[in-house]
Design goal:
This protein is an alpha+beta fold. The protein is 69% helix and 7% strand. It is built from 18 helices and seven strands. Strands 1, 2, 3, 6 and 7 form a five-stranded antiparallel β-sheet that branches. Helix 3 (18-38) runs antiparallel to helix 16 and helix 10 packs antiparallel against helix 15 (370-405). It is rod-shaped. The model is unreliable at 1-8, 55-63 and 487-491 (pLDDT under 50).
Length: 491
Amino acid sequence: MIGLIMRHSIPMILFKWQRVVMGIFLTIFVVGLCYLTFAERKYESAAELIVKFGNRPMPDFDRSPTTELTPADRHEIVLSHAAILSSPDLAQATIKAVGVDKMYPRIVDDPPSRWSVMDEAVRRFKDDLWVGVGAQDNVITVSFLNPDKALAQKVVENLINQYVGQQTTVYHDPHSDFLKNEVTQAAARLNTAQISLNEFKTQWQISDFDQEIDDLLQQRGDVDSSLQTAQAALNQAQHRQVDLEKLMRDVPRTMPESAGGEKYRSMDDAQSRLADLRNKKSQMLATYSANSPALIQLNAGIVAAEADLRERQNDLGNRSAANPNSVYQTLQTDYLRTVADAESNAQPVEVLTKQLAGIDKRLDDLRKARGDFDNRVREHDLAEDLYKSLSTQYEDARVKDGINQSRISSVAVISQPTLPYRTARPRYLITFVAVVLGGALLAVWGALICEAMDDRFTTAEQLALFLDLPVFTSIDERRPVFPSLPASQGA
C-alpha cells in the first residue's frame, strides 16, 4: 500500500483520516498549552567572560623562548575554562555559597531517596546552567535560570567568583610549601657539596683543577727547556774539560830559557874569544908550522878558552832554571775555568731534574685524583643547578600565591551578570510555533501510517495500480436524495 499512498492524493488521505489527524493535532496542542500554562517561570541572568592571552599577570621566570599560540590552541584553552565553569565541583561550591535551601527549597523539603540533597541540587544546577563558547573568539557566555530573578543574578556572580579562585588554583597552583621544603633540602645538599669541594681544594692546594694542570704543564715545559739548556752547557763543559786534559798531557809545563840577556853575556864573550882564537889559528896554520912556538901558544890559549867556555856554561846551567810554559799555563787556566763551569752547570741540572721530577709527581697525583675531583664538581654543579631551579620556582610560587590571594586572573568579566526583567523559560512564541508545527507534522504522519496499514481501496486508481489492468468505468456510491414534498401532498 505504500506505493498506492505515494500515488494517492495526500489531501484525500487527510480527509479520509480526519479524525485521526484532528485527534493527534489537538492532543499535542493541548499538551503544549498545558506546558505554557503550568510550567515554572524562570528568569535568566547572563554574563560574559574573556580569556586573555599573552599578558601574563606575573613575571616570567622561564627564559625559554615562547611559542605563538595557534587559533586551535586558543580555542582549546577557552574550552578548558568553560569546562571549569561547568564542573560539578564549582557547581557544588556555588550552591554552598548561595545556600541550597534558597536555590532549591523543594529539594530540601522533599529530598530524593536514591542520592543526597546536594547531588540532586548539583544535577538541577547543571540543567539550569548554560556555558557557551564561540567558534573563533575567546569570549565565554554564562547564563543561569531561576524562578527568582535576583537569585539568578546572585548565583551567576558567585559562580564567577568561585571560578576565578578555581582556575587560579588549576592553572597557577604554586605548591609553595612543597617548594619551600625542596629548596631547604637543595640548600643543604649544595652546602655539603661545597664543603666537600673546598676540602679537596684545600687538601691539594688548588683553586681551579684545570688551571692547575695547565700551569703545571706550562711550568714543566719551562723547567724542561731550562734543564735541556743546563744539560747542554754541562755536556759542553765536560767535553771541553776532557779536551783540555788531553792537550795538557801533550804540552810541557816548562820551556828552556833562550840565550840572551845580561846573564848570558860572559858566555857570549867566551864563545867570541874562542871563535877569534880558532880563526887566528886557521890563519897562522897558513904561515906557521904546527910545532912553532907561536902556534903552540895559540893552541894553549884555545884550550884555555874552551875550558873557560865550559866552565861558564856549567855555571850558567847551575844558576838558571827552565821557564814555565805559557801555553801550558793558558791551557791550565782554561781547564780550571771549564771545571768551574762544569761544576756550576751540574748544580742547576741537579736542581732542575729534582724540580721536574716533583712536577711530574704532582701531575701524576692530580691525574689520579681527577675522578674524585670531577665527581665532587659534578655533585656541586648538580646541587647548584637544582638549588637555582627550585629557588626560581619557589619565588615564582610566592608571586603566584600573592596573585591568587589578590584574585588576579587571566580571565576578565566584560559583562556583569544581568538582572532579568522578563521570563526566559518557557519561551511562549517558540513553544507555540513548535507545538503547532509539531502537531501538524505528527498528524500528517499519523494519517499516512493509518493509510499504509489500511488494506481497503479508496479510489479506482489504487485498484488499477494494484491489478495492473485498465479501468473502463467507475461507479461512485452515492446516497439517493429524495425531494421534500409539501405537507398537503403527503397527507
